[in-house]
Fold:
Amino acid sequence: MTRSLQSDEAETWPALLVAAERGDVDAASAELAAGADVNQADDDGWSALHLSALNAHVPMVETLLGHPDVDVNCRNRWKSTPLSLASAKGHHACIVAIVGHPQTDINAKAEYYGRTALIEAAKNGHVDVVRLLVEHGADVNSTDKSGRNNALIEAIKGRHYAIAEYLLDSGKLNFLNKDTRLNALIWAGSGHDHPFIERLEASIRKFFDGD
Structure:
């Protein structure tokens, strides 16, 4: 998902959204000081926090998060949060700021695919973001809307084996769900990475043996 300022929007958007999309902290701060609604959004639900997180404007993200009325879990038309957008893009510094906010829902799911921020990060191969989210309590077993794909499976699909092995090593994966367990094995098999397949099978056996 991408979002960039179009020429007509520069004329019709509220000044705060224009400043956020451009990363102009001084302009945004002036708008907020003048009483602008920190959570105002365009017709598709894109808020200043959405735009700054998507575009990796870290100082802007930090400025907006410092506002007492900011909705850190705001949703756009597709129910994406600023955290999920930043996680999909791998914007580590933005994510550090967002997960540090006390009201952040780290396991919020977008509407279309039902992916969490962790699933988005795993799908797109951002191992540093995956680590950060797990360290801050992201649910490694949360699935998308299908109920069959979690962060591990998305990592395996993309052959992001460093992420998959990190998740296996976390000791937090639950293999009781037959569909997700078989899905992981099927996707691992399709990758023909035999050392990883053996690693996955060993983790599943360990889970059920309780060792």
Remarks:
- The first helix runs from residue 7 to 12.
